[in-house]
């Protein structure tokens, strides 16, 4: 059995991670949970029949020696906690965003071996996305894409102390919400080459943006329009891919099934109906663990969405186009997405 520990016992752990782990109970067992709030972790363990509760990550790692750690903590804690777990010999599965900067991400990957760090990116793993990637060569050249995350989060949502702050959340809807649709877009279209963007804080009382817009050119030559918002009363997640021979569209909100996809191609026919979910990605992560291979959404693959987000913020803060090749350690956005300090 693969020994699993869950770190951070807030909403995402119980809503998404524990159901995914229960679906893999034939090969994975949760042996411990960690939270700085002793009462909360105790209640979480009681609710989910987890045998051991801890308030210290280091103490848990030393006592339990888990094979895999699920990091469900706020974003500003991910980098340090991931490196700590990797150095203890555990694999890591981190909630999005993986960390607050490309510099932090590269520190995480530098700590890999023998374990790996993977980031939650569940929309890549539904059957619709798999089918599109497999079918894409038959649809011709990709030309135009739309990537829209128009969600709604009221003022009270940002009362949680770490939300809406550069130092703790790392960004607004670009970083914390639209990352899922942008990552799915990248999985289909590949690496980007150039981005031009703007951001605004139009209504929420936060440090970060509450809306962003960008125009993206991909290495293939395809062009995309990207919108991220937490101000939109009618919520939607929307992706559109226009190829020379067909259009493929996805409309959903927080997760999709095959019925949420449409296409003008007569060849569009996903062979199964696997929802985009933590469960779908965890299955592949555990497969990789059992084979001793690098899992999906680790290394360069896990870096893709953070790279695009970094380019978006860099362009918005400087008012200039940004090339992907610009984002080296010599660029200030490599180290911090908060351009107030360097733009």
UniProtKB/TrEMBL annotation:
<feature type="domain" description="GFO/IDH/MocA-like oxidoreductase">
    <location>
        <begin position="138"/>
        <end position="247"/>
    </location>
</feature>
<dbReference type="Pfam" id="PF22725">
    <property type="entry name" value="GFO_IDH_MocA_C3"/>
</dbReference>
<dbReference type="InterPro" id="IPR052515">
    <property type="entry name" value="Gfo/Idh/MocA_Oxidoreductase"/>
</dbReference>
<dbReference type="InterPro" id="IPR000683">
    <property type="entry name" value="Gfo/Idh/MocA-like_OxRdtase_N"/>
</dbReference>
<dbReference type="InterPro" id="IPR036291">
    <property type="entry name" value="NAD(P)-bd_dom_sf"/>
</dbReference>
<protein>
    <submittedName>
        <fullName>Gfo/Idh/MocA family protein</fullName>
    </submittedName>
</protein>
<dbReference type="InterPro" id="IPR055170">
    <property type="entry name" value="GFO_IDH_MocA-like_dom"/>
</dbReference>
<dbReference type="Pfam" id="PF01408">
    <property type="entry name" value="GFO_IDH_MocA"/>
</dbReference>
<feature type="domain" description="Gfo/Idh/MocA-like oxidoreductase N-terminal">
    <location>
        <begin position="2"/>
        <end position="108"/>
    </location>
</feature>
């Amino acid at each position: 059995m693969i020994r699993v520990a869950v770190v951070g016992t807030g909403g995402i752990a119980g809503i998404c991670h524990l159901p995914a782990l229960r679906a893999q109970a034939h090969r994975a067992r949760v042996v411990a949970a960690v939270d700085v709030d002793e009462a909360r972790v105790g209640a979480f363990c009681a609710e989910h029949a987890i045998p051991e509760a801890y308030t210290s990550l280091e103490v848990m790692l030393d006592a339990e020696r888990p094979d895999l750690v699920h990091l469900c903590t706020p974003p500003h804690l991910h980098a340090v906690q991931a490196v700590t777990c990797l150095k203890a010999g555990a694999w890591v599965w981190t909630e999005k965003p993986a960390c607050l900067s490309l510099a932090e991400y590269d520190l995480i990957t530098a700590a890999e071996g023998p374990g790996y760090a993977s980031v939650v990116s569940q929309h890549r793993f539904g059957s619709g996305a798999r089918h599109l990637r497999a079918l894409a060569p038959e649809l011709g050249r990709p030309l135009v894409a739309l990537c829209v995350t128009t969600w709604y989060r009221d003022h009270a949502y940002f009362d949680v102390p770490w939300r809406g702050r550069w130092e703790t959340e790392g960004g607004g809807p670009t970083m914390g919400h639209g990352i899922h649709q942008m990552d799915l877009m990248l999985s289909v279209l590949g690496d980007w080459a150039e981005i031009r963007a703007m951001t605004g804080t139009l209504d929420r009382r936060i440090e970060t943006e509450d809306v962003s817009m960008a125009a993206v050119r991909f290495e293939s030559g395809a062009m995309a329009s990207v919108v991220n918002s937490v101000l939109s009363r009618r919520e939607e997640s929307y992706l559109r891919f226009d190829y020379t021979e067909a259009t493929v569209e996805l409309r959903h909100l927080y997760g999709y099934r095959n019925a949420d996809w449409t296409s003008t191609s007569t060849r569009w026919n996903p062979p199964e109906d696997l929802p985009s979910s933590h469960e779908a990605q965890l299955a592949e992560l555990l497969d990789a663990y059992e084979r001793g291979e690098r899992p999906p959404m680790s290394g360069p693959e896990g870096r893709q969405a953070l790279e695009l987000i970094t380019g978006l913020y860099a362009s918005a803060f400087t008012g200039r186009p940004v090339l992907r090749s610009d984002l080296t350690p010599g660029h200030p956005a490599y180290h911090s997405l908060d351009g107030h300090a360097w733009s």
